[in-house]
Amino acid sequence: MAGGDLFGDLPPPSSAPQPKTLKFSEPNGGSSKDSKTTDDKEPSASSPPPPPPQAPPPALKSALKRSKPSSQEEPKPEVALSGKRLRFKTSTDASEAQVIEAMKKIASHIKNPSKFSKASKLALQLIQAGSVKPATSDHFFAILEVAMSSSTACNEASLRGDYHALFSAAQDAAEFFNNKQKNLLTTWTIRAVVANDLLTDDSFVFSKASGRVKEAISSLPVATKDDDDDESATLAGQVDVENANEQAGGGNSSSVDEGKVEEPDPFGLDALIPSTSRKEDRMKGKKEAIKTKALEEEEAKNFLRRQREALITCLETAARRYKTPWCQTVIDILVKHAFDNISRFTSQQREAIDKLWASIREQHIRRKQGKSVSGKLDVNAFEWLQQKYANEKISIRHSVGGSGERHCEQWLG
């Protein structure tokens, strides 16, 4: 080995393949100083470009997770369906004439007991839809008036619930009624709502209805002799409202004046005698004021009379439930309250309250003595079974030949 070639036996440096790296250029077109390559030669233009870096694989989702609501997804175009869709109508877009026509139809059917349930539900929908307004209130009140044309129908077992629902909801439309209509609605509510609550099986509702009756009794004024006379005349059928209005208007002279037919003034002579026309206007104004006052007084009397009658109905309804044990204490308090305020009722109504209180007091004394309402001694379930089976023949051998003479005195003590 000559010349001191120490590396002659080693392989050349280019024999080992080295990985190539990309060479990035600067924005100005020059090569990057920091980039490192293992080859001094740049790749030729004919070589294919390197593949882009692959994105990381998506994370696996649990099978228990659900996709988010469709609200976050892209809206899908609506597809027109050839079939019919089921839609619910949430509002009533009826005209005033249509509402009035519907009210007239309901009023024509609601008097029929077989159609009352359906007609009352339609009337209830009118209230809930806000169809009862000042322009339609008179027509709706006619529905209530026809429904209460019978004073006993509202307490029938088959119609009781529908009457209760209708007149409870009618309170929402009371603001559109005049004073006379409000008074009638008040008395009808006592019959259709409060009296029906006294027939319930819920002790809380029964006690609440009893409290309302007590409050109504306490709000009544003391009855006068005129109230007794009016009641007697009403029961005898001798009350004539038209005659009473004529008497309140000024007797025969008022009736003659009201019966005059005013002729038109073709020549305009009324303007030449203003004094006479002013006197007539004053007289007419006074007569109208007297007539209006008389009508208001008559309406107040009728309202008190109807209210007292409705409260008597409630007292009688509650007294008939005295056989129910949990009702007895409440009825005792209610009838005692009516008896303490008996002066607020008319003479014939006072007689009815006296009879109710005497009956309730007698049954109350029996309860204190341990007797039931029927007069028999109250017994518990064990005592009743003891009395029933004391003399029964029970065989311990069934059909094996038992004579059945053995008593069960040992078993029941």
From TrEMBL:
Residues 46-59 have a biased composition (Pro residues). Residues 1-91, 239-269 are annotated as: Disordered. Transmembrane segments: none annotated. It comes from the Eukaryota. Residues 33-43 have a biased composition (Basic and acidic residues). This is OLC1v1026494C1. It comes from Oldenlandia corymbosa var. corymbosa.
